[in-house]
Amino acid sequence: MAAGAERVFKTAWFAKASKKARITDDELCSAIRQVVLGQADDLGGGVFKNRLGKNLYRSLILARGRQCWVYAYLFAKKDRANIDEDELVSFRALAGLYARKTAEDLAKEVQLKELVEICQ
After folding, report:
1. Rounded CA separation 99/63 (Å)
2. DSSP states of 87-98 as a string?
3. β 68-76/7-11 pair status
4. 50 conformational bin, left if phi > 0, alpha if psi -120 to 50, beta if neither
5. Cα distances (angstroms) measured from residue 11 to each of 31, 37, 47
């Protein structure tokens, strides 16, 4: 991504899940470029769904003003078709929480290893 462009993170949980699914940071960075271009499902409230792992997985990405993207959840397409409405409500609330975070908040979460920054 270009200098001064969006920042991209993955949660500690997502980092473990994507490693197990053999989804690389390079693939995540490529996928986020598609999301930025509007090539993902916009679930509303700052939540996006995108395909990963040769279409075997789905990821949920939380957007903070389209300047900060957080990979938050990963699931195998074979295990479930989608998230349910209650889960979507929760992810929208989480996206709202990220929207209120400052750069200092994000830096602290990276330091505590709650978030991992990728696509630098």
Report:
1. 7
2. HHHHHHHHHHHH
3. parallel
4. beta
5. 16, 22, 15
Identify which of 49, 47, 58 has the alpha carbon closest to the alpha carbon of residue 96: 47
Q: Rounded distance, CA 118 to CA 10, Å?
A: 7
3-state secondary structure of 20: helix
- Which letter does DSSP use for residue 80 in this model? -
Residues in the chain: 120
Query: What SS3 class is residue 105?
Result: helix
d(CA 20, CA 40): 23
Helix, strand, coil shares of the chain, percent, nearest 5, are 40, 30, 30
What pLDDT does residue 120 have? 77
Write out the H or E segment, with its range, that includes residue 110.
helix 103-111
pLDDT in tens, 45-89: 999 999 999 889 999 999 977 678 999 999 999 998 889 999 999
